[in-house]
Amino acid sequence: MAEGAYTSAGVDQGRAGRAVAALVDVLHKIDTGQSSRAVLGAGHYAGVLRLDGHRGLALSSDGVGSKVIVAEQLGRFDTIGIDCVAMNANDVICVGAEPIALLDYIAVEEADPEALEQIGRGLRRGAENAGVEIPGGELAVLPELIRGHPSPRGFDLAGFCVGLVELDAIVTGGRIEPGDAVIGIPSSGAHSNGLTLARKALPDLAEMPPELGGRSVGEVLLEPTVIYVRAIRELLASDVDVRGLAHITGEGFLNLLRLQAEVGFKVERPLPIPPLFELIATRAEVDAAELWETFNMGCGFCCVVPFDDADAAVRLLGSRHPGAAVIGRATTAAGVIELPGEGLVGRRQKGFVPLGTSG
Q: What's the pLDDT tens digit per position in 87-104?
């Protein structure tokens, strides 16, 4: 397979996947001297540890990636905290847990009070949107490790989110059946994935391409990640049989294969594709396969429900996130994602290839 635009931009997703597998293989061998509390294996969106016979603790940790570079270059830090909360709380909700708290880790080149106040404002907004507390965190001043774009604005931001879930209410995807409906919820743009490729394709953050409707590249790239927690909590509390929940991040719809189901998925009616992604494809000469395995392509979250529950789920989700719609269905082709409208078929750690291509 020829080197893709994302790889040439500095991110080799295949190599990263193999590196994560190597790390996880070692961590699986931890011996604490007592029975494991782990309820879910590695690979799902959040780990779950058994607290007692009834309740579990859901755990997730994530950062916001190279989106911080856009914030540094624009000198605007008031939204990046929203991304930090979103990337973590959206993962915790995928196992049916209620996110309750987040700890933040901020590494900086220089401790600038104004920049940190702006980051804090974003964290607060994100926490309020997700309904979580931020009881603490860590600030590390690391000028030998962190270099800004430009200096001394360099920083990195990550979070660790915890949630609570009843053990008999964990959503794993294991009950998904062929024919179940896949509902897509719109994204706000690139969210916090694929920014390395996006910045390479669109290096001038002040540029205002007509495709972006009067907004600058920087504004569009810095648009915060949508927080889906409240809508999904409402869905879980309804009469809808929620069988699978997937946060669509890097690898796009391939994230559906993280659900523990012996099924595949056919996305026949994707949500509208934001102009940003088509602009990136044109400027960086990215083919459809790489585009769909790098970005969310307009869909930031998916819910899998029985076909008969689909209309009720769309109404409920659409009340908070207009544009939510049925985009496809579960199939008998286990481990396979089909995008017939794009002529693509995909498998985890193999990416998307044109239909009819072997491998």
A: 999 999 999 999 999 999
pLDDT tens digits, one per residue of 171-207: 999 999 999 999 999 999 999 999 999 999 999 999 9
**Which residue(s) pair with 265 in the sheet?**
330, 337
Question: Residue 110 is encoded by which pair of tokens?
Answer: 């220089």
Q: Which amino acid is at 199?
A: R
Strand partners, 330: 265
Instruction: Compute how many other C-beta atoms are within 10 angstroms of the C-beta atom of residue 357.
Output: 11
CATH number at residue 80: 3.30.1330.10
Residues with Cβ within 8 Å of residue 128, at least 6 apart in sequence = none
Residue span of the structural domain in which 260 resides: 181-354
**What pTM value is reported for the model?**
0.91
Nearest alpha-carbon partner for 334 in 260, 250, 246: 260
Q: Same structural domain for residues 217 and 326?
A: yes
Determine, yes or no, domain membership for 300: yes
What tokens appear for 348 in the block?
Answer: 């985890």
Given the DSSP bridges, would you call strands 264-267 and 337-339 parallel, antiparallel or unpaired?
Answer: parallel
Are residue 138 and residue 185 in the same domain, yes or no?
Answer: no
Could you give the number of structural domains in the chain?
Answer: 2
DSSP string across 87-117: HHHHHHGGGT-EEEEEEEEEEESS--HHHHH
Q: Are residues 151 and 205 in the same domain?
A: no
Domain of 283: which CATH number? 3.90.650.10
